[in-house]
């Protein structure tokens, strides 16, 4: 089974009559506004290429008018592309006949809307079970499946309540439960949390991550919030004027923005929740082996103008830190390094988020040692390197 679930190749969507001239201008490098002023054609999408892997959250982000929602609706062919193609499991959507497309929409892909899209005349259970009802599944079976989804999104006990009695966050949970009840492989989510207050929004983001990790659904998620994109996205595409300007992981974008637009766009993002320790760690300049003499340790600290030295064994496994005060004591009392050094030293791994080590970095008297799975010393993280990463 291929890891790639969906491919988009050279996708364009133009609105207007004079599309041939507009296409020629876009190919020649004209921008969206110039094309509209000259031809009256809106280039909603131009030359979109991307791949969505099974089980990932793929986020489309951009300002209003960037084309992200238009692109989202091409994945279930609610929008028909002017040119290019969307391929699902090696089958182009354009090649599907009416029945195949209907089955695709019923069984393979579901959509969660920003406005919840719930039916006021149905209770929670009725809304969640609606897609199964359309499929012709018996009432007993569809309600059993719907109840499992209601329980999964934390709405047990509310199944017979009117949707009007629910808060915004609860209504959004109903929308997600309805999409999950169809057991579709792909969920399309068009700014589903943008109408929620910040506290509920954070709660729903956490719930979505929990559900996705449990159910392994493939999710294509549209947002205009860079923190939300970086929190949820395994892969993120930033869109501008109908084009994708950069695709990558949140970490890749933060460390290597493609251009000034991307750099400015992600400038307000909370970097501590994107960057990992590997992005900020540095090589320790003062290291000794455990069997090295105390005089050697003192010479190393003096040469590097430092008051401590990292201690490792012959396999570079981290053992602790020797301070200058401890070294002087050992020299005076003829003690070994192992008898005086600090062993209870905070360590971390290079894939840990900076946000997760900030409280420790603020309290520890020494830089944090970065070790691998075999406890080998890889680098250190200082207070200044944490602060620099956030600037």
UniProtKB/TrEMBL annotation:
SMART domains: AAA. The keyword Lipoprotein does not apply. It is a peripheral membrane protein. Residues 281-337 form the CBS domain. It is found in: Cell inner membrane. Residues 6-266 form the ABC transporter domain. The keyword Ubl conjugation does not apply. One of its GO terms (molecular function) is ATP binding. It catalyses: a quaternary ammonium(out) + ATP + H2O = a quaternary ammonium(in) + ADP + phosphate + H(+). It holds the Pfam family CBS. Keywords: Amino-acid transport, ATP-binding, CBS domain, Cell inner membrane, Cell membrane, Membrane, Nucleotide-binding, Transport. Its EC number is 7.6.2.9. InterPro entries: AAA+_ATPase, ABC_osmolyte_uptake_ATP-bind, ABC_transporter-like_ATP-bd, ABC_transporter-like_CS, CBS_dom, CBS_dom_sf, Gly-betaine_transp_ATP-bd, P-loop_NTPase. Belongs to the ABC transporter superfamily. The complex is probably composed of two ATP-binding proteins, two transmembrane proteins and a solute-binding protein. This is Quaternary amine transport ATP-binding protein.
């Amino acid at each position: 089974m291929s890891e790639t679930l969906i491919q988009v190749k050279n996708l364009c969507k133009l609105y207007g009559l004079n599309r041939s001239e507009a296409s020629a201008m876009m190919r020649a490098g004209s921008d969206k506004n110039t094309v509209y002023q000259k031809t009256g054609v809106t280039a909603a999408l131009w030359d979109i290429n991307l791949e969505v892997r099974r089980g990932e959250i793929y986020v489309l982000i951009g300002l209003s008018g960037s084309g992200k929602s238009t692109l989202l609706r091409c994945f279930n062919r609610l929008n028909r592309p002017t040119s290019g193609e969307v391929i699902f499991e090696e089958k182009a959507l354009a090649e599907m006949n009416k029945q195949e497309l209907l089955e695709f929409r019923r069984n393979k892909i579901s959509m969660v809307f920003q406005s919840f899209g719930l039916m006021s005349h149905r209770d929670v259970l009725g809304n969640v079970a609606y897609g199964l009802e359309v499929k012709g599944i018996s009432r007993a079976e569809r309600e059993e499946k719907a109840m499992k989804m209601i329980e999964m999104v934390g709405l047990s006990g509310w199944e017979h309540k009117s949707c009007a009695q629910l808060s915004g966050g609860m209504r959004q949970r109903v929308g997600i439960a309805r999409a999950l009840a169809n057991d579709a492989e792909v969920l399309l989510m068009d700014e589903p949390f943008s109408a929620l207050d910040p506290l509920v929004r954070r709660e729903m983001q956490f719930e979505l991550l929990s559900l996705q990790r449990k159910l392994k659904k493939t999710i294509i998620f549209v947002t205009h919030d860079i923190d939300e994109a970086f929190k949820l996205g395994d892969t993120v595409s930033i869109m501008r004027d109908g084009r994708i300007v950069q695709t990558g992981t949140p970490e890749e974008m933060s460390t290597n923005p493609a251009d000034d637009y991307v750099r400015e766009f992600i400038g307000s993002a909370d970097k501590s929740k994107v960057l990992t320790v590997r992005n900020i760690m540095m090589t320790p300049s003062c290291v000794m082996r455990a069997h090295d003499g105390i005089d050697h340790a003192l010479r190393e600290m003096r040469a590097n103008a430092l008051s401590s030295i990292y201690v490792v064994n012959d396999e570079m496994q981290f053992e602790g830190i020797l301070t200058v005060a401890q070294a002087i004591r050992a020299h005076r009392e003829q003690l070994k390094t192992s008898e005086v050094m600090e062993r209870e030293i905070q360590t971390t791994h290079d894939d840990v988020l900076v946000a997760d080590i900030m409280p420790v970095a603020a309290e520890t008297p020494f830089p944090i040692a970065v070790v691998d799975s075999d406890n080998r010393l890889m680098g250190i993280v200082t207070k200044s390197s944490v602060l620099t990463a956030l600037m």
